Structure formats: C-alpha cells, structure tokens
Description:
Layout: E1 3-9, E2 16-19, H1 21-29, E3 38-43, E4 56-65, H2 69-74, E5 85-88, H3 90-96, E6 103-109, E7 117-122, H4 125-133, H5 135-141, E8 148-150, E9 154-159, E10 163-173, E11 180-182, E12 188-191, E13 205-206, E14 209-210, H6 212-215, E15 233-238, E16 258-261, H7 263-269, E17 280-288, H8 295-300, E18 311-312, H9 318-327, E19 333-340, E20 348-351, E21 363-368, E22 374-376, H10 388-393, H11 404-422, E23 431-436, H12 443-456, E24 463-468, H13 477-493, E25 497-502, H14 518-531, E26 545-551, H15 559-563, E27 567-572, H16 578-595, E28 600-601, H17 609-615, H18 621-640, E29 647-648, H19 650-657, H20 684-699, H21 701-705, E30 714-719, H22 725-735, E31 739-743, H23 755-769, E32 773-778, H24 780-783, H25 794-806, E33 815-821, E34 839-843, H26 848-859, H27 870-876, H28 882-906, H29 910-917, H30 936-952, H31 956-966, H32 975-983, H33 991-1006
Parallel strand pairs: 1-5, 2-4, 7-12, 12-18, 15-20, 16-19, 23-26, 23-27, 24-25, 25-26, 28-29, 30-33, 30-34, 31-32, 32-33
Antiparallel strand pairs: 1-6, 2-5, 3-4, 3-6, 7-10, 8-11, 9-10, 13-14, 15-21, 16-20, 17-19, 17-21, 17-22
Helix pairs in contact: 11-12, 13-14, 16-17, 16-18, 18-19, 23-25, 26-27, 26-28, 28-32
Amino acid sequence: xxxxxxxxxxxxxxxLVNLPISIYGPLLERxxxxxxxxxxxxxxxxxxxxxxxKVEAYVGWTGMASAxxxxxxxxxxxGESGLETVEIDPxxxxxxxxxxxxxxxxxxxxxxxxxxxxxxxxxxxxxxxIIELHASHVESTLxxxxxxxxxxxxxxxxxxxxxxVRLRVVSLDPASRSNALLLATNTEVSIAPKLHRNKLPLSxxxxxxxxxxxxxxxxxxxxxxxxxxxxxxxxxxxxxRRLLRDLTFPEHTGSELVAYVSPRTFARIFPFTSRSQDSxxxxxxxxxxxxxxxPSASSSSSPTxxxxxxxxxxxxxxxxxxKEQSTGTEPGTGDxxxxxxxxxxxxxxxxxxxxxxIEEWDIVHVAEATEHDSIxxxxxxxxxxxxxxxxxxxxxxxxxxxxxxxxxxxxEYCTRQFILHSTTNSVHGVSGLLVTxxxxxxxxxxxxxxxxxxxxxxxxxxxxxxxxASRHAEQPVLAVKALMNYWFNKAVWHKPTVLVLDNLDKLLxxxxxxxxxxxxxxxxxxFVSIFSASSRxxxxxxRGIVLIATASSSSAxxxxxxxxxxxxxVIHVKPPNKDARRDILSRIMKDRLDIxxxxxxxxxxxxxxxxxATQTEGYSAMDLQDLVARAVHQVAIRVASGADKAxxxxxxxxxxxxxxxxxxxxxxxxxxxxxxxxxxxxxxxTRRILRETLEWPTKYAPIFAQSPLxxxxxxxxxxxxxxxxxxxxxxxxKECGLxxxxxxxxxxxxxxxxxxxxxxxxxxxxASAAKPCILFFDEFDSIAxxxxxxxxxxxxxxxxxxxxxxxxxxxxxxxxxxxxTSRPDLIDSALLRPGRLDKSLLCNMPDQEERKDILQxxxxxxxxxPSVDFDSIASATEGYSGADLQALIYNAHLExxxxxxxxxxxxxxxxxxxxxxxxxxxxxxxxxxxxxxLSKAEQTAIEQRLRQIHISSRSPETKSNELQSxxxxxxxxxxxxxxxxxxxxxxxxxxxxxxxxxxxxRGFVSDRNGELPVPPDAGGIGNRVSLM
Length: 1028
C-alpha cells in the first residue's frame, strides 16, 4: 500500500528525491541500490478540493533519507501534521506541478524496465545553447542527476552545479505500459536542437511561420534543417578479389577508389548509363552497414567509461559536417568509382584495393553520387597481368589424403542445402552436418577444407565463420547465450554462410552419472532454441545458413541435439588406411625437406614410404607428423654427435618409433606378453589355425587383399580347464605382432542401464583404434550367456550389443575377436554363427606325446638332469592337463631347493673354515711402552684385518682355483624328485568331470545350436544343475 508524505523543498540540484526514514530503513536493510529503484509520486488533493487533473511524477532516489522527516516522525501530533516528508529540489518540483506542503503518495517500483534510447528536447533555446557549450559535462553527470524518464515529463540537469537545463522527454525505446523507463549505463539520450528564431534557415520560414515539414519530428527528434531528396541506394555484399581468379581487372594507379559490379547491378545503380561504355567508372557513394557486435570482444575491451549517457548534437553547422566527411573521420564511408564487368555475381561489389574500414563480406549501401563524375580505365593486356598472377599470390591449398570420399559427401550435402534454400523464401531452422572422429583424425582440417571449397565455388561464394566451441566451455551461461545469438546473427548478416562449430562436444556434452549436468542441459536448450527447426523461439528465416559441427562421437553430444534433428547427416572420419598413410608421410617429408634445406634423403637408398605405412597401423595424421618430427630430431642428434652429412634414413624412423605411443593408443591399455610358441607344448593343430587366422593376414597382406571373400575374424577356444586356452592367447599377443587387449567379465557388467552396452562399444572402438588388434574375452560364458536366463537383463543387453559389434554393417576390419571358455554350451548360439565366432577350436586333454612335449617345454625354464626320462613321466601322468604338468615340474624344482637348503646347513664353507683356522702371526713395532699388552678382542680384530689383506694380495689365478675347488655342485631336478612329487599329486580335473565335459563337447560339435534336451547330469536326485 502506498505511503503518504509531505513535500519539503531542499536544494538538491538534481531530479532525485530523499525518501522518508520509514521507507529508507527497509530499503537499507535489503541492500536496495538507488540505481534500480524508481519513485512514483501521486499528488493527493486537499480536503474540499476537486481534482481536475491527476498530477503524478516518476523520479529517482538519491540513496539518502529525508533529514526533515525525523522531526515530523517524532512529533506527538496526530493526523497530517505527523506525516513524514519527502525532500525534493524546489525548481524541479515547480516543473512537476508540486508545491511546498503538498501531500503525495509514494510508490516504489523495483521492476521498471531499462531504456535503450531516450529522445528529449529543450524547453527553451537558451537550454539548447547551454547544452552545446557544456555537452561533455552534461554527458558525464547525467546519471548522477536523472534516474527515470517519462514521456511528457520534465527532467532537470544542473551544469557545474549552478545553471539548470530543462528537458522534456518526447520518446522512449522500448515502449512501456507506464511510459516510464529507468536510465542505465548503456542508455542513449538524444537531445533535439532548438535554435533561436533569427538563427533558423530561411527556407524554414514562411511569412513568419514555420513550415509544416519542420514541425514534424523524425524518429522522435525534431530536425532543424530541411529535408533533402536522396538518390536510391542499393545493398551490396563485398566480394573478395582473391576469389575472382579467372577475371583480369584493369590497371589503376590513381588515388581514387575503384570497384566493379555485374552489368545488371550497374544498370540498377546508374540507370541512365549505356552498356557500350564498359570502360567508364561512374562516381557513387558507399556506406558500410554495422554488423553484429561480438559480445566477447566488447567484454574483453577496456572497462566501461564513466559517462552513462550519450548526447547527440545534430545542430553542428553544414560546413563542419562537410569538413568531417572530407577528412574521413568516419571509416567505412566515402566515394567510389564503380565499373561493370562480366563474371561478377549479382548484388556483389569487388574493390580493386581494400578500403579503410571495409572488410571482406561486409554489407554496404551504394548510391549514385549527386555530383556526376567518371574516370576511364584501360583493360590490362595478358602480357602485363598474367592470369596466374592472382592465383600465385593465394596460399596453397591444404593437402588431405585418404578423405576424398568424406570431402565429397560434405561438399555435396552443403551444396544441396544451398540449392534447396534458393528455391524457397523462408527456411525454418538451420541445416546441420556433424563430422565425428577420434582426436587427431583431421576433423578440423576436413571441415575447413569443405568450407574453403564452398567459398571458392562461384555458385555459393559463402562466408565462413569459424568458432572453436571448446574455448567457451568454462564461460558463464549468459555469456555463452550471447555468443550463440551472435554466431547466428553473424551468419544471417553475411549469408550465404557456413557456420563451423569445432569441438561442439566440449560445450554441449552428454550428461554423465554422479555429476551435475544442469549447465550442459541448459546450454543445449539454448542452442536448440536458436538453431533447431522444432523450437518455437527459433528464427523464422534461416535461409542461406549451413551449420557444420565436429565432435568425437554422436554419443558425446547431448541427446537433445539428436532428438531435435539439428544434424540431418552424420559423417564419421576413420583413421587413414595404408595408402593414405603413405601419401601423408611422403607429403610431410617433402614439406620438411623444403623447409630444412640442410637435410636430404639418401639417393642410393631412398625412404620406402610403403614400408613405413605398413609399420604405422593405427596412426592418425597428427601422429605421422610427430613421427616425422622425431625422425628429423634423430638426424640432428646424429649430426651433433659428429656425422658428416645430415641424411635421413630408414633407421631414423625405427629409432623414432621407440617409446612413441600414437594418440589413439594413449588411452588404451595394451597387454604385453613374454610367452612364445616354443613355450607351448602340444596343440599343434590349434596353433596352426591361430597362425592362419591372425598372423598370415598381416604378414601376407597383399595376397589376402586379393581375396574376394570375407576373412575369418573370430575364434572360440574351448576345452578342459588347464589345457592352455589363456596361454595360447598370450602367445598370440607376442608372436603375431598384433596389439592385444584382454577383457574380463566384471570389467563390462554394470548395474546401470546402458552402461554395460557402452562398455562393449568402447571396447570395440579402442580395438579399432589399435588395429590390427586382438580382443580377447576370457571366461566368455560369463560375459555372453544364453539370453532369457538373466532376471536383470544385463547380460541379454550385452549379448545384443556384441552381436551388433561383431557382425555390423561395416564389419571388423583389422580387429580379431578371440574368446576362451570351458563351457561352450552356455554361450548364446547367435554368437557362434559364421561372421562372428567363425571357428571353434578344441583344446583337448593332451595325449602321451603331447604331455612329453609339454614337459620338455616347461623343463627349458628350469635345471633338469639329463637322466630324467620324459617318456616315462608322460606315461605316468595319464589324465594330467598342461597346467598339472607345469605344476609337477615346478613342485619338483621346489623339492630341489628344499634339499639344497638342508644340505647347506650341515656343510660349512671349506674355504672360509680353512682361512679362519689358519693363525696369523704378527709383531707390533713402535708405539708407547705402556700399550705393549693387547686384549683378546683387540688381538682378534688385528688378525682378521691382516687375514683380509693377505687374501686380497693373492693373484687372480690363485683365487679362481681356490673358488673352483670349493665350488658347490649344481642342483638339478633328478628323477627321484619327480617321483616324490608324483606320489602326492593328482589331476586337477577328475575322471568324472572329464567324462561330463567330454559329453558336452561332443554334443557341442555335433549340434552347434547348443540346445541340449536337459542339463547335463540332471537326472539324479540331489545333483547340481545349472540354471538353463
């Protein structure tokens, strides 16, 4: 409810008021700033007085309390005499219609909108003259005296604290319901001129009366000069001359600014000029239209100056204006001589020489000059200006190898969108293209090349606006919102435009678990509201704008972007293949040698880039650049160490590859293994098939490349426990020369919905990045069991995802899947079909010959006596697996260690005992007579010291002979050690278990679907069964 107060005059010399204490106190407690508060005063009519007109005023607050209200507040009188007072300047109050002692209702307005521009006019011509004299002072002190503007209300400004200037508000922007707005630091205040009668132009006077045209304000500001009829202006787009490589422009050495347009545009600007005068350039005027302002540039500039309002002064004389135009104080405007030339796109303007204040792709207003003038330019001959001179000055195009199909797809998509936009007048929503790929694959280079190609295309001549979104990932949401609006407005202003948003996933990332994703979701909603066609708040016309964004993957972006269909097409960039790597290496090496002229190749033994491409599987273009740089560094090291010539060789690349991890493999955990084929006994057929499937396609790649059939890419190793399935996989990791990734079941399974499937996708993506690579799944039956038997559904989703990954539309190029299990019947049958796990290899229990082979392979790692008969041991270990045989040898070796330790405790060292038993005789010479008697401890210490000196003085031959004579004998595994271990060792797989697993394996081989009628051994009472 508004409070009442009595008006009290105090010389404040401003358009502000001091509030009563009862209002001042709560405002002070709530920390209300005076700059954001407006005071609404309404005159209360006196008793018995009939109100004719409602008197109200909108004023500002000084931030101070009314000093005179304290006495009124403490007064004991009731009624109006006890009212508090509101203090106001008397001169300002008279202008508002208030007098001393009037009662007013006070209203507080906290949400009054801010004004962008305020149009005012002086009440008298004297006020205008004072403003002209003290314009800078009024500009700097305006906000300290005026806070609120209302249409029709007077505002007073005191100049130098003495002279009052009275202004009346005539217009406000934006419009307000109460016709009142707050003034802010970015508010522009325009003051219309008000000249004395004898200073008005003669044309504006007619029989002592003003002309009607002078009475009408223009844009809310009264203009004090007559209107001029201006020629028709046309909006043209600045086209860079570098894009017109096929055109030959005339020579011009004068100081005039010359530009060219198409003949049709020329006829529109100069309608009375004939087509025959092609060599004439006619005079015109141009003015650059202001483009959207970058908010980041304005925020990073110098701090906001103290003046909070700007006073426009249109009353400057015409001579001063002409002087300012002649001196060129305003950039982007001036005179230009325009000619016509075929080959220039319509509505475009091309300058021969860049003008000050004009940039490429700017929008300008061009009109025929009022003063008709022209110049003659002669066409340059071919021998003076060759056609290749402009092209030679251009920077060379970037070289991209192995991505020709991707460049074609991107260019065709963008061109197709521009063609569709040209057939309609309005396009709702921006057409988007998403380019995905791992870091270092060249996404940025690809989108830059596509945008450059579209810019050079005469059918589009599009403007390129490149933005690295990762730079704005940490900025506030409001700042990013302003930037997004600026990106869109900039694209609309210079259209047709290709808007490139690089690393968009860093700004609009996907939501993650256990983290606050409100910021990402908020930014994505803002982005969708600006660029998506499905948003109601999006621009009504996005014609001529194509968006190209890059991200690591589609899943790395917020899901809202996919659901709103901003990106109509997604193109994935794969690592370069062998031919592309060869071309990239040769080009990088050529560029390096052109820069480093002191380094050269060996002409007798040139670099074999094909062989280098074969050794750099999985390398991206960035990795290849780093590799060449490391190789050049190796040459520099060799020259610094004393080499005669700086010649780069194949060995430099081999040295550069040591300890070099490609970018795609730095987040991939690769397993290393020391197991060789010779460490595995038996399983000859299984090893042969493994080598054929995994080693031969890499070793004999040219032969397998001619195969029209799809190669085998999946193997299943099944068999009895301890028969070498995991050991075979470890040997494959070393012998086949492939990267090796081992996966355990718990690493994949996750309780959250979708997390397990994402783990499977990430596994195959890592394997694709590390190709040629082997993806090994141990205990595969726990990862991919039969579907329909899991109450949670986690393993079912994992199986479905693996089915998609192992036999997708693109297949597994360079990725081999190796799985191991002892229960193949529990694996889902869909994974065992051709195209996924093509071949199943049985690791059977070893026979006698294979057991002998296993024993010999294990015996190479320990000391075994030649008297050990492996044939007899192999015959005595029927039913033993490979792991049992290895444990047998290791336990026998442990028996040897125990025996040697026990023997060492009872056999002292003969060499040490002989030295200790020999007495050492010595004689003491010199010293004091009182110290001739030595204690037993001192005598023993001297003897040990002399004995050590005596031993060290012997010859090396004597030492070696004594050591050989006293050397202990070698402790080997003897037959009795093995026999002792055999008496206490039993097979790890009992006979009943072997028979049960044998039945399962026979059923698995005869019927690959794995659908057994009943679970094995489930007929007896009390027997354990599986949950099939």
